[in-house]
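Input set for joint prediction.
Command: fold jointly, output tokens.
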Amino acid sequence: MKPARLHDQGFTLIELMFAVAVGALMMAALVAAAVCLHRSFTAVDNYFASHVQQVRIMDFLSRDVKRSYIVTTSTDLQTVTCIIPNYLVDNGSNQPTRATPTLSLVGNKVVANYQASTVNNVTMTQGSTSLTCPGLALVSSHFSNANVGQSVVGTGIPAGTTVQSVSNCSLGSCRQATMSNAAGNTNGSATVTIGALTNAVYAVVNQAIQRRENGGLTNIAASADNLIPVTSDVELLNTEFTQSTVSFLPQFARGNQAFFADERAGTTVFSLTYLRNRRRGDG
Amino acid sequence: MKTQIHQRDNGNILVCALCTIVIVSLIGANVLVNCITHYNVTAKQLKGWKEALYAAEAGGDAGFDEVRKALNPISPPFTTDGWAAAPSPAPTPGPAWTKTISGFGQEGNLSTTVTIDKLFDTTGTIPSSTPYYRIRAVGTAKLFGLPRVGLSDQFLVGGPNFVANSASRGVGDTLLRKIDFKYDHFKASYGDGDGHNLSLSTVTFPQITRRIELVAVPKYFVFGGAMRVVSIFDGPGSAGFIDSYNSKNPTNPNPSSPQVVNNDIPGPNTTSYYGSNPSNPTYLADAHDGDVSVGAKNFAEGGPIWGDVTTNGGNVTHSGYQISGTIDNNVPFTIPPLPAPDTTGFAATGSGGPVTASGTSESSPTGFVYSGLSGNVTIKNGNASSPTFPYAYAKIVVNGDITGKITVEKGVTAEIWFTGNMKVKAGDLDNQNVDRGTKTANPGSLGVPPLIPPTPADDPNPSRVGHMKFFGISPTISGATQTIEIDRPGNIFATFYAPRADITVIGDTDIFSAIVGRSFSGNGNTGFHYDKALNQVDIGVVTDYQVVSYVEDIR
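tokens >
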């Protein structure tokens, strides 16, 4: 048998260059495909991750709105402030207990408070920090020394306001209180709720959505850089609700700004939540 | 030999291809794992979290439904249907009851446990003798899907997880959804919710629990709709209708005498009552609150009803009836009997004649007692000449039947309580008040200065109808009923609250009113017009319970 000599034969330079060129093209195509595939996978992964955070933010907000006394939104609709009854008694341990409700009258409507009280027929003046409630303490609700330092909420009172001092006191009932912030409007028969209230604020900070409960940060979204919330508060005669959306821009979106806007709009998640303990407008 | 050389070359290509496939597969697998993780969160855990709240709210509804039975003296609540005394430590001061409902939802994955305890108010907001109820419901949803993401399962009794300080509760979903994969985190950290009975309890299936608390307080308003009858409703007349108006509405062009006008919205050739601009939805809405509630299935309709209708087991539909509002055939209710009022200090009179009222508030009226009312009675306004408050309140108790004419002078608000039956003509119930009785200026005259203060106050009672209120004192004999029969001619401006009375109206009478009774029958072209201003009338009896607070325990 004649030995084979194929392995002794080399390629010509042209053959080699052609083969290298074809090989390079194939490798380039393969690398490009791998990179595109990776980008696509990453974008899909990011899409799902953003969607999960989107839903979580919405659920946090809906839960807070549902149990709020008062909800306000900023002009740009990206900051939401919820005033929530303080149901849990923080007794300094890891086992907070549940507060017992107490009843109050707001107009002719009975409401239940947790670690708070309601004062009716309060007079407030726009630009003034003073609250007054005339009448006899025995027949109407008044302020007390225990209110100093506590939160005060009501229509026209800025969120985060506290009672700084009380005065004109007799037998423990005080007819005047001074707030930490000035009232936003004038009302001769307002109703205010005073006590240990929880203040939850949702805001966009450095392109991330944050929730702060009484100033403390709650980590509701690990990375929310491209999430945009919009919440509007709707007040009707006997009810109040919020309509919220959270959207994000998918990573694989390409094109001009109009296309980006459409891509973002396509990710919008909507939520409508009613306040179960509405206190606004009672005064 | 040639074959071996080629095999070696092909092997290199195969290795390269395999490596490429492996790398791409790893990327893809990683993405798929992430996607499945997110899918588990969004589809399974989110579903469980939301359904746990639905279960808790279902428990709250079941509890509230049981609380409403407290109005029924025959069948007291918390005694049947699975209710039992709450285990120790029960909420204080108690007593407290509990019930578990399970096996509902997808494949029976949901359950709820309700605990209700009775409280009494010490602030004077409601009478201290009347209880209100705290309803706590725990909703549990069994978690479907793979338990690959979520919380640490290393709970310790009294450990640091989920403390009241929000800063150390966790992050993201751990903070929000609190899934129990192996152990019940709530029992481990908080026991019963107040730090009692902490235990490391193993859960049978991965689960999510949510807890809500409702507060149900007694409701005292007696006229929340046009008509509320316990057993039978047969009305209005075939040529009549039921609608509503609001005497507080300041734009009504003639509030003292509401106008009947044609109203093509929402139906043709119909009459209704509202303000000066029929196209204004605000006032049109005032016309469509003539709600009718029947505590049984017995419902028959003649003319249209502009409002909502509820029955208990009826078969009322929009197609078979002329009803503008919503229909619900599954609304049970009871109306407690009305006891006789305390007549201490009331003046005893005969069977008729004029009396003068001078009481200045509903809580301190001038009282009169009749053995029966067969003659004509005029209730005069003893404060009519008052420059500041020309209004008076009277409370009349009739220990017998009413058959005579009753006149209520302008400015007088009269409550007429009776034990017997009532049989009168509509015109015999003469209510001389007006809607939104306004202050009358006293500008003085030449040489005579105006009085100080020059203008008396407005009538505190804005409703003409609300100035004449009849209350049927329930017979103490079991099964005994009252009758109220009103015949033509004339119109009626008065309310009727008589839980054990069968009420019959005959003829072309227009009734401006609100009625609570045992049954109602109206024939002919009897029209009924409910004044929405009556929805605040309170006679001191508990008519229902309502939920005034909702909180969620988010631990």
